[in-house]
Design goal:
alpha/beta, elongated, five-stranded antiparallel β-sheet, eight-stranded mixed barrel, 20 helices
Length: about 675
């Protein structure tokens, strides 16, 4: 019998090689589809075996569709377990029934047992679906060495060593999933090594996670669970939700930990290295290292600098949370924010009192959301700056087309100019959704390409996930970005390094209550790599004033960097429709050595008149010429208001001509070039 058994094993090896060759070189039927012969045979076996069973339905027999085949295997297993209401997921009911029937898992047959089981067939179908050869060219319904060796190879790919062939609950769940345990296209061998180590070291906590080399949401959750395990949470309490308890128990004093519990210290060092690799800082990380050293400290310091966190080179709360959550620590302080609410004086006072220096506001979006006419100047007059946001897309990806990009460039430019935002400032165009790489290539990039071709007066910034921002900037369609890191669940933030040229990072939403009520505010980290709007091309000079006769305006200074100025005067009579106004601009000249301190007229006789009748009061406006100015000097206006009905009007000006019968309203607007 031993001789026969050995001959059978030799034959099995030869057959495995033949089948493996067939699997590696499947039949290609087109550029889009490749038929996998063993996947096709699995589909045929499933239909032949369960096609007439209630709850199974069918699976397409094309040798291509792996997901539908996995779902069919799940339904087949549920039927074998006695579940009548089948579903395409391995849920709690399936877990309960599997544990009841196979408390020790599905164990490999002892040769020469000739027992057949559909469970064995399902396992073989699942293995072939994942690309593991069972050593036969058909579904055998046996669990011999071919199937057993495939299970062992699968477990090895999962990161387990010295494994047996038993199909436990976790292995069965992994088999009947779309998870992969070999490096896929775009995957990293370093990330795969981490995934395997997590499976091997923390199986009771994380179960079996994919080992495909891709940092995903499930892997991020597993890392948080590992942190909670290090913190002392039980398997049941380590949920992967980074709450206040996890934050309160963060391992911050590594030196003390190394003295108290060396095993936890080693685990902590490994976790720090895992998270740095997953955030794109793995180039100099040695995953075999278990001690804090200068190399690790320098990588942490680099990460902190990129994330605008205090660069201590040590593990603090902000660093731990930034490594595990794209939003980082939502309680950290910042100087920037954005909001859909108007910046009234009351709200501006709140921002100033809480350390904010710049605020994001919308250029368009309707009366509630967008900037008000006088809001930019109100913000600047209070010592704050602002950054303009353009968003009309919502979350609809089909909005992003080349034609829409061209149109939005014009709309945003017109809006920015209407608010007197000077040229060369950055407008942040929003992608407020989580597109995949394919969707970025198909929708987002053509939109920004057209946007960049059409935009001429302003620079382009992009708001979106790390992935969106990086790809748009890599193509040269935006100079910087505003990252939507607050959306921690977005795949475009998970596992992507912070774009190197980022300027703004949105990380938390808070509700603020002031005297007028409650309003929303997004906290934003500001790197300072690019400036925000600190001045306008046109200001309203003071409030509208009511004058009669001769009036002198208050002294004012021009914005920093202004080289040219012109002014617009708007005159409106409130009583008499026949009023004239002459305006002169004076500059304040000071020369200590020459004992000069006086105002000198630099531009005079901008002349306006209102023409109307007793029933209609009129409003007129007029521009001055452009004139050179300096931000080192002071300036003021002189106003001379005349009554056109005066019998001496038109003669040499005299005080008897001044308008004294009522009041005229005068508004002054200053326009600058820098």
């Amino acid at each position: 019998m031993l001789l026969c058994k050995n001959k059978l094993k030799i034959f099995s090896v030869i057959l495995s090689l033949i089948v493996a060759t067939t699997f590696i070189f499947p039949i290609r039927v087109s550029a889009e589809a490749t038929i996998d012969q063993m996947l096709l045979k699995s589909q045929e076996w499933l239909n032949d075996t369960y096609g007439d069973k209630v709850g199974f339905g069918s699976v397409v027999e094309d040798g291509i569709s792996r997901r539908s085949t996995v779902n069919a295997c799940i339904r087949a297993l549920q039927i074998e377990l006695g579940i009548t209401e089948t579903a395409n997921n391995f849920g709690n009911t399936t877990v309960s029934y599997f544990n009841a029937q196979y408390p020790n898992g599905v164990i490999q047959q002892e040769y020469p047992s000739d027992e057949e089981s559909n469970i064995y067939g399902i396992i073989q179908c699942a293995l072939w679906t994942k690309g593991y050869s069972t050593g036969a060219n058909f579904i055998t319904k046996h669990f011999y060495d071919g199937t057993g060796n495939a299970i062992i190879r699968l477990k090895s790919d999962m990161g387990f060593t010295n494994s047996n062939s038993t199909v436990t609950l976790d292995i069965m769940k992994a088999l009947l999933s779309m998870n992969y345990y070999v490096t896929v296209s775009g995957g990293s061998s370093q990330i795969r090594q981490i995934q395997q180590e997590l499976n091997r070291t923390y199986p009771s906590y994380v179960g079996i996670i994919p080992c495909d080399g891709v940092y995903t949401r499930s892997m991020n959750k597993a890392l948080i669970i590992v942190l909670q395990a290090i913190e002392g949470y039980s398997v049941e309490d380590a949920t992967g939700n980074f709450g206040n308890g996890t934050k309160a128990n963060l391992p911050l004093d590594l030196e003390q930990l190394s003295l108290q519990n060396v095993q936890k210290y080693y685990q902590c060092i490994k976790l720090i290295q895992y998270t740095l690799c997953c955030n794109g800082y793995g180039a100099s990380i040695d995953l075999n290292n278990t001690n804090w050293n200068n190399t690790l400290s320098n990588v942490v310091r680099e990460f902190q600098g990129d994330m605008n966190i205090s660069q201590t080179g040590t593990m603090n709360v902000d660093t731990w949370m930034a490594l595990l959550l794209s939003k980082g620590n939502p309680d950290r302080s910042c100087v920037a924010c954005d909001t859909r609410f108007e910046m009234t004086q009351e709200r501006i006072d709140y921002l100033k009192a809480n350390g904010y220096t710049t605020v994001g506001r919308y250029l368009t979006g309707g009366d509630f959301k967008q900037l008000r006419e006088d809001e930019p100047q109100r913000i600047l007059n209070n010592g704050l700056s602002f950054f303009p946001i353009f968003q009309e897309s919502g979350t609809d990806l089909t909005y992003f087309t080349a034609s829409r990009g061209s149109q939005d460039a014009i709309t945003a430019t017109n809006a920015a100019q209407s608010f007197s935002i000077p040229n060369d400032n950055i407008i942040y165009f929003a992608v407020d959704t989580d597109p995949t790489d394919y969707q970025i290539q198909t929708y987002i990039l053509p939109y920004f390409e057209a946007l960049s071709e059409q935009m001429s007066y302003y620079q382009i910034g992009v708001y979106g996930t790390r992935n969106v921002c990086a790809q748009v900037m890599d193509e040269g369609y935006a100079v910087t970005c505003f990252v939507s890191d607050m959306s921690t669940g977005y795949s475009g933030n998970m596992g992507f390094k912070m774009p190197g040229n980022w300027n703004l990072d949105q990380f938390a939403e808070i509700q603020v209550t002031t005297a007028s009520g409650t309003w929303d505010l997004d906290k934003v980290s500001y790197s300072g790599k690019f400036s925000t709007v600190t001045k306008l091309s046109m200001y309203k000079y003071g409030n509208t004033i009511s004058i009669n006769g001769r009036n002198t305006g208050d002294e004012f200074s021009v914005p920093d960097g202004a080289t040219l100025m012109r002014y617009k005067i708007v005159l409106e009579s409130t009583v008499d429709p026949a009023v004239a106004l002459d305006v002169s601009l004076e500059k304040h000249v000071v020369d200590v050595e020459q004992d000069i301190n006086e105002f000198v007229t630099m531009h005079r006789d901008l002349h306006l008149t209102t023409i109307g009748n007793d029933e209609i009061l009129t409003c007129v406006e007029s521009y001055s010429d452009w004139m050179s100015v300096s931000d080192l000097l002071g300036y003021r206006f002189q106003y001379y208001c005349y009554d056109l009905n005066s019998p001496v009007y038109g003669e040499e000006p005299s005080y008897s001509m001044f308008y004294e019968d009522g009041q005229a309203n005068v508004s002054v607007y200053l326009e600058f070039q820098y």
